Each structure stands twice: as C-alpha cells, then as structure tokens.
Amino acid sequence: MDIIVIGAGYAGMTAALRLDRRHRITLVSATDHFTERVRLHELAAGRPSVGTPLAELTRGTGIHLVTGRVTELDPAGKKIVLADGRELGYDTLIYALGSFTDTGAPGVAEHAYTAEDAAKLGVRLRGGGGRLTVVGGGLTGVELATELAEAYPDWRVGLVAGGRPVPGLSRRGRAHVDGTLARLGVEVTMGTRAEAVTPEGLRTSRGEIAADVVVWAGSFAVADVARRAGLAVDERGRALVDATMRSVSHPDVYVVGDAAAVNVPRAGVSRMSCAIGMPIAAHAADAVNARARGRAAKPFRFRYFIQCVSLGRRDGVIQAVRRDDAPIELVLPGRLGAWVKELVCRYAFASVRLARRLPRSYVWPR
Ligand SMILES: Cc1cc2nc3c(=O)[nH]c(=O)nc-3n(C[C@H](O)[C@H](O)[C@H](O)COP(=O)(O)OP(=O)(O)OC[C@H]3O[C@@H](n4cnc5c(N)ncnc54)[C@H](O)[C@@H]3O)c2cc1C
Question: What are the residue boundaries of the FAD/NAD(P)-binding domain, all occurrences included (predicted)?
Fold first, then answer.
C-alpha cells in the first residue's frame, strides 16, 4: 500500500516511523529537517540549534523523503500537489501539517516576530537592548517572555495578556508564574487586548505601548489545505476525525497532531500540544496498520495528566491535571519543575529518535 505522510513535526514523524514498513511510505516535509518546536523559545534565547536532519531520523527505515510544500490535497484523485507542481498519489494519506502562530491581526506579519522566527529574533536581540513586548498570556507567550528576560537582561521585557497569564493553571501554579515574571523583571499588562502591531510598537484596547521589538504569541492557526480540499473541519479549520483519527468525511485520510480536532472521551476537543499530538499520531498509525492487516482498529484512549511550563532555564511549573485537563492544586514549581519539563521535552524527541529502530516503542498515558 502507498502511504503518504505530509508534515514531519512531532505527529508526522511519530506516525511515519510507526507504520508497518512493508508499506511504501513517503514522508513529505516543507523542510529537510525535524524542528523541536517546543524549544523555539530556547532557540531565540541562544540555543544553537533545534533541528535534526530527517535523513538521520529515518535512516535505514525505507521511508522515502520528499522535500516540498504541500499546496493542495485532491481526495477524489487520491493525490497531493506540491508548490513546485509535483503530484504524488496515495492509497492512504496521513495529514500532519501541524499549526503555526496566527499572524492575521493587522501589522503582525510586517512588524512582529513569532516563535517561528526564533532564529531571526535571537539575532535581533543579541544586536543590543531596548524594549521588548511579548503579546499573549498563554503558555507560549509566558515561556517566551521569561526565557528572553533571563537570556537578555539588557532588554526591558513586557508581557501583554488579554486576561491574566496562563489562566489554565491552578491558583498555586499561577502564583508561581506571577512570582517568576516579577523576579525576572517582566512587566505584565493584564486585561489588555493587542489590536495591531506598528513600527513603533503595539496598539491595544488600552492605548499604545511603545516597543522596539514585538513578539506575537497569540493563538495557533492551522493550514487551510484540509478545508480547501473539502475535508470536514471545525471552525478553526482542524479536521474532524473519528476515534481512529480517520477524517469523518474522507476515510482514506487520517489527520493527526495539531491539525486534527480529536474528541477525547471525558476531556473534549484535543489541546494543540505534543502531549496529545503524538499519542494521536501513534494511534492513527496503529489504526492504519491494523486495517491493512484486515483487523479492526481500536478506539483512541488517552488521559491528560500534566501541563508543563518552562520559565527560563532554571525555573518552571509542572501542573497536575485531571484526565479532562482541568488543573488541580498540585504543582512542582522551581528548579524541579524546570528539570521535569526538560525531561518531557527530551522524551518527546527521544521517542522520535527511538522509533527508527523500535517503531512501536512510544507509549502514552491512557
Ligand atoms: C514555543 C513553543 C513551546 C511549546 N511548548 C509545548 C510544550 O511544552 N508541550 C506541548 O505539548 N506542546 C508545546 N508546544 C506546542 C507543540 O509544539 C505543538 O503542539 C506540536 O509541535 C504539534 O505537532 P505537529 O506535528 O502536529 O505539528 P508541527 O510540530 O507544527 O509540525 C508540522 C510540520 O509540518 C510541516 N508543514 C507545515 N505545512 C506544510 C506544508 N504545506 N507542506 C509540507 N510540510 C508542511 C512543518 O514544517 C512541520 O515540520 C509549544 C509550541 C511552541 C511554539
């Protein structure tokens, strides 16, 4: 069977490496390397690299690598189209195009940096101090603000949040984040909606904020390839899938990672994260493998158990959550939190590495 996996992030890699290798597997990626996306804020802060060649991660597996940007999916013709015009046909498609920072607000694309611009941002910040404003009080915004404040003490760092920073944490978790932001000198402006980025800084619901550099860390958006192809998607463009990650509208297409809106029993729609994106991808590969062997695919089982936030290299919060992802008053703060978060990031990447030799080694909480 010809299986194409599009997107080589955490989800695409997990799925591609877990598929039975008797299939002809093609992995299509916009870049020739895997990016440890959960470390992009570290890259901006001076980490030398977060990339690993795909050729290294797939060596000896028989997976055929194609570098190119997917521009179209034609489910009726069972093919994908790349930006350079190449067309590739499939029997089964695994769609793993992930997500990216939504840059739709006025001026963001022109004047702001995002996590995806981490390397460029690092170069800019090493070029001399000034006022740096991070927009977004979610996990990514807080991780960026703290990491950058710690790495670049000659910059005055501000954080602009629509509500309060990381509202999804417990009271103890939030208190620790607030304390760390204060310790690192991050000026937090809460309850303020950023409306536009200008050459001078930021326009907000409460007036102008002057900044030399703006880092935009609003919500994530997904590619519109699935929607344009006619796949059933939700209001954010994430594909609707069944309990085996198969598109509810197109059974030859499985959708994994951030690109999929997975209904998790007792926890609602999947959160865009590696924490569930990798289990989703592994489960999809298991379903494809089972069906190709004429067996029934099992329904997805998963339970959230922690949320991790890094607060620079020496601080962090590990927040225990119930299976429905709601926080409880149990947190591991400080150095220990930073250490566990580091282990979690290493586990995610190590799982991708290990799957080259041990395809079914990745395990997750159920
Ligand atoms: C700074 C930061 C910190 C984070 N920290 C955490 C954390 O601590 N824990 C956690 O669980 N999650 C975290 N996340 C979220 C996590 O990174 C994502 O949820 C995860 O990467 C999603 O995996 P994915 O494989 O679905 O997508 P991605 O990792 O985004 O991979 C998608 C891949 O598809 C490729 N691609 C995209 N479009 C095309 C195209 N048209 N053609 C070909 N290839 C394409 C991309 O180049 C990429 O390789 C963080 C994110 C950021 C930005």
Answer: 1-266
